[in-house]
């Protein structure tokens, strides 16, 4: 019977097999390779020699440790390298103690070399000859440390001379590091130029020459021939091929010399030299190979990269020049002869490149012969300026005149020598025409504004003059009216007294209007006769309130003032500030119903002196509040109520506030009332403080009647 298994969460058991390669692949490969090459080098060392002829283990160790450094596998790779060297030495016939000591000594080489190199090249990549020199220095430090450590067990356990061992170990290890390790450190920038055929011919020739140099019975010192063919490869082949050639030369030399072939073995036999001498001669030759090859290969790689960048820059420049169809870019030699002419120049000037290149001077593009001096054009550039901007009037090929805005710069070499000139231009004919039209319009506007200002000044002077002329006779009229009302010219009947009262009332209204016009003109003109002094704002406000008190009493309006406990110092004209108060409080009284209260207060807030006047009168419609400070403006509800006024009171307030660098604010609602706030800059009080009005120290004062 088939059973149904209830569904549930799936449990996947991870397999450990697929993940071993990324973690253990490098240590295992490095350990096995070191074991193999170490055994071959140690087991096939010359007879009676205490050290190997060439020690490729050093190069493999440094290269593997460099890769491990980037992969964060340093400890596992070091352990694998130590085990590999220990096994190789043990299998080759060394004692366990000597094998262990030599294994530990070999670890010092990659640790010290890569550790030092990473301080100057964090990514462990060789990109030029300077990087290779740093690598050589780090490798030498690591090899010296390894030789010093390895010499002790060889001397104690194998009874070999310390200095002889040092002379053999240092070149054998250093040459191996410089030959093998670069494979893990090189960072090629560009592909090599050699193709397959050239690479095959070059490698084959090098191998044949190397085999001939180290052939049996060859006692002539022709090893330098290998260097010549390696230099050929350094200039042409890729990094992997170059590395393979260097390793091939080293391996062929080491193997054949171990077999007793070549000039080095022949020299040791002929002169009965110690076997370590043969190792030293071979290692010095192998050491010369990377020292000659890798700096040249790196220099050629940098050279190829630089040439590629130059080609790309030139192609980009050509593309820009051809793509700049709206901008003329013209190149010229030192004598001004045109050397390059882009599509934009053809479009701007109308001439094709064959018509001008090498045939005309760049200054000949200008219409006026007097402006064609090249020396005058480039003199500022030769004096140190970066560029020269000019407008050129030019004749196109079709005869049309155009205005071209040009910028002339010098074309310089790497040593800052002037090679020629670059002229970049743009057709600005329409732009300049528009600019001239705009300038003409602005000039007409300026003249119109000046005429308006002159008219306004004439108007102000006229109003001031007329007001002065009206005030004198009006004062006389009011004076004689007062004398008549006092019955100095005889008794008056009731009808005559009513007529004189009407004359006096309207005369005073007219005199008030005249005074307002005079004050407004003085404030507008910033009259130099205006008094500017340090004063207590409360004094001017108190005097203004006292001046309005009779009006408030007549209208049965209560006038409540709160002037604060301390002085309120400001800089200003006391008469103007008093008039400001009279206008604000007078307006509030005029528009307030009988029995209401007008509140006047002075306070300090946020570095400002604040004068506030509030009433509970008819208020102002919301859409008319913004126009309250316009001259002769009167609100619609005031006109309907037939409240008398000239419409200049608040305009004068605004001018006085502006004259004192202050601000004025209005809050009003129809049928509710109006609040006006005047803000003036507050001055720092002096030790004694400004002199206050005798009544200004009262916190609250009530003027008028209820």
Give a brief description.
With 706 residues, the chain is of the alpha+beta class. Helices cover 57% and strands 12% of the residues.
Relevant terms:
4 domains; Beta-Lactamase; 706 residues; single chain; 6-stranded mixed beta sheet; 57% helix
Characterization of this structure:
A hairpin with a 3-residue loop joins strand 11 and strand 12 (673-681). 57% of the residues lie in helices and 12% in strands. The chain is elongated. It has a 6-stranded mixed β-sheet with strand order 11-12-10-9-7-13, with helices on one face. A 5-stranded antiparallel β-sheet has the order 2-1-5-4-3, with helices on both faces. The model is unreliable at 1-21 and 687-706 (pLDDT under 50). It has 4 domains: 21-302, no CATH class; 324-427, Beta-Lactamase, CATH 3.30.450; 452-518, no CATH class; 530-703, 2-Layer Sandwich (Heat Shock Protein 90). Helix 4 packs antiparallel against helix 5, helix 7 runs antiparallel to helix 8 and helix 18 (574-590) packs antiparallel against helix 20. The N and C termini lie far apart (112 Å). The protein has 706 residues and is α+β, with helices and mostly antiparallel strands. It is an enzyme of class 2 (transferase). Its cofactor is a divalent metal cation. Pfam families: HATPase_c, HisKA, PAS. Its main location: membrane. Residues 682-706 are annotated as: Disordered.
């Amino acid at each position: 019977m088939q059973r149904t298994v209830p569904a549930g969460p799936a449990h996947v058991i991870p397999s450990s097999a697929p993940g071993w390669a990324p973690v253990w692949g490098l240590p295992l490969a490095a350990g096995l390779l070191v074991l193999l090459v170490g055994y071959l080098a140690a087991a096939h060392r010359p007879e009676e020699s205490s050290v190997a002829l060439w020690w490729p283990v050093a190069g493999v160790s440094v290269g593997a440790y460099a890769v491990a450094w980037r992969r964060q596998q340093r400890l596992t790779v070091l352990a694998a390298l130590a085990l590999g060297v220990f096994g190789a030495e043990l299998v080759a016939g060394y004692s366990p103690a000597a094998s262990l000591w030599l294994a530990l000594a070999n670890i010092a080489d990659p640790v010290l070399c890569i550790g030092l190199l990473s301080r100057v090249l964090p990514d462990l990549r060789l990109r030029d000859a300077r990087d290779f020199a740093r690598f050589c220095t780090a490798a030498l430090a690591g090899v010296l440390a390894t030789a010093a450590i390895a010499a002790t067990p060889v001397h104690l356990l194998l009874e070999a001379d310390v200095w002889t061992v040092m002379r053999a170990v240092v070149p054998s290890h250093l040459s191996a590091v410089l030959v093998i390790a670069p494979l893990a450190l090189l960072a090629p920038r560009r592909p090599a130029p050699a193709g397959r055929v050239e690479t095959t011919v070059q490698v084959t020739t090098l191998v044949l020459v190397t085999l001939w140099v180290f052939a049996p019975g060859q006692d002539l010192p022709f090893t330098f021939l290998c260097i010549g063919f390696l230099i050929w490869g350094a200039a042409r082949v890729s990094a992997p091929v170059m590395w393979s050639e260097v390793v091939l030369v080293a391996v062929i030399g080491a193997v054949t010399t171990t077999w007793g072939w070549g000039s080095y073995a022949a020299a040791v036999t002929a002169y009965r030299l110690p076997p370590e001498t043969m190792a030293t001669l071979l290692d010095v030759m192998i050491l010369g190979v990377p020292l000659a090859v890798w700096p040249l290969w790196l220099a050629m790689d940098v050279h190829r990269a630089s040439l590629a960048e130059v080609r790309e820059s030139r192609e980009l420049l050509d593309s820009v020049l051809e793509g700049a169809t709206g901008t003329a870019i013209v190149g010229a030699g030192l004598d001004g002869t045109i050397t390059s002419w882009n599509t934009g120049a053809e479009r701007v000037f109308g001439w094709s490149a064959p018509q001008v290149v090498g045939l005309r001077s760049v200054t000949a593009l200008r219409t006026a012969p007097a402006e064609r001096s090249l020396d005058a054009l480039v003199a500022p550039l030769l004096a140190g300026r970066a560029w020269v901007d000019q407008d050129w009037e030019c004749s196109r090929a079709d005869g049309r005149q155009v205005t071209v805005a040009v910028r002339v710069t010098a074309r310089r070499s790497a040593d800052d020598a002037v090679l020629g000139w670059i002229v970049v231009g743009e057709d600005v004919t329409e732009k300049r025409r528009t600019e001239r039209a705009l300038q003409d319009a602005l000039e007409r506007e300026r003249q119109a504004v000046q005429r308006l200002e002159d008219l306004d000044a004439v108007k102000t002077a006229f109003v001031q003059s007329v007001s002065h002329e009206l005030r004198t006779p009006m004062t006389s009229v009011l004076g004689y009216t007062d004398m008549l009302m006092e019955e100095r010219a005889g008794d008056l009947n009731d009808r005559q007294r009513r007529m004189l009262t009407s004359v006096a009332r309207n005369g005073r209204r007219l005199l008030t209007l005249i005074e307002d016009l005079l004050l407004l003109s003085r404030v507008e003109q910033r009259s130099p006769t205006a008094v500017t002094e340090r004063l207590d704002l409360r004094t001017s406000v108190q005097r203004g309130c006292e001046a309005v008190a009779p009006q408030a009493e007549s209208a049965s309006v209560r006038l409540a003032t709160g002037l604060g406990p301390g002085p309120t110092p400001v800089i200003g004209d006391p008469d103007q500030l008093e008039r400001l108060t009279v206008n604000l409080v007078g307006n509030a009284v005029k528009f307030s119903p009988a029995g209401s209260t007008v509140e006047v207060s002075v306070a300090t807030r946020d570095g400002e002196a604040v004068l506030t006047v509030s009433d509970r009168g008819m208020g102002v419609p919301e859409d008319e509040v913004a126009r309250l400070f316009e001259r002769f403006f009167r609100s619609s509800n005031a006109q309907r109520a037939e409240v008398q006024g000239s419409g200049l009171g608040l305009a004068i307030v605004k001018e006085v506030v502006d004259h004192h660098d202050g601000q004025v604010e209005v809050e009003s609602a129809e049928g509710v009332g109006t609040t006006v706030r005047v803000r003036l800059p507050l001055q720092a009080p002096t030790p004694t403080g400004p002199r206050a009005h005798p009544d200004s120290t009262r916190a609250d004062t009530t003027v008028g009647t209820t």
